[in-house]
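User: Round two. Same drill as before: sequence, then structure, for each protein.

Assistant: Same drill it is. First protein:
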Amino acid sequence: GMLGTPGYMAPEQVVGSSEPATDFYALGVIFYELLTGHKPFLGDNIFTLLSKQTQKAYSVASALRPNLPKVCDELIDRLLEPDPKQRLQDSSQVIELLNSCKAAFTSAAE
């Protein structure tokens, strides 16, 4: 069976596959939700949700929060990549982009 909360699951989890990049996908959903107050993908059922995920059919975070630095959109986009091979693969890459997003926020607030 499928383990996980569908809104936070990477597309590959639906078919029972999991790898380190799978956790980065969930992080992308959580980060999007923290920044916007909304989940990036909504669906009445798992099939609708999966379709939106595989097509990356979501509004960029800065569309919902115009003051958001573009580097934050880039981080989310790379975390929500449907293909795990194209997704960020390494925690150091994630941390680097997170730090860039934080720095852009800090300089925008000054």
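Second protein:
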Amino acid sequence: SLSLSVIFSFKSFTEFNFSILISWTAAKGIFDNQSLLLYLACIFWTLGYDTIYAYEDKEDDKKIGVKSLAIYLEQNIKFWISLFYLCFISVFSFLAILNNINSIFYIFHL
């Protein structure tokens, strides 16, 4: 059942995050490593929000036997969610540096 949970989570990653690769390529006219970094950043962002969302239903999920990342990480949930978002901010900021984004970006980004 954990494998089904991972597959379902992967499905939600690919639905939203795959569009990142397409959009980046359309906007820049090239598929490059930076698009993969943005894809990775968005996976961390998705892990963060999806875990928070799943945590809200964890008691009901336990009752009916649904497995989720929130249940698996329940003992250290704050640590993991913080780590997911820290990874997102780190990779996203690195992309901003690579693309010479104006410093005003960091005020609104954080």
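The mean pLDDT is 82.

User: Perfect.
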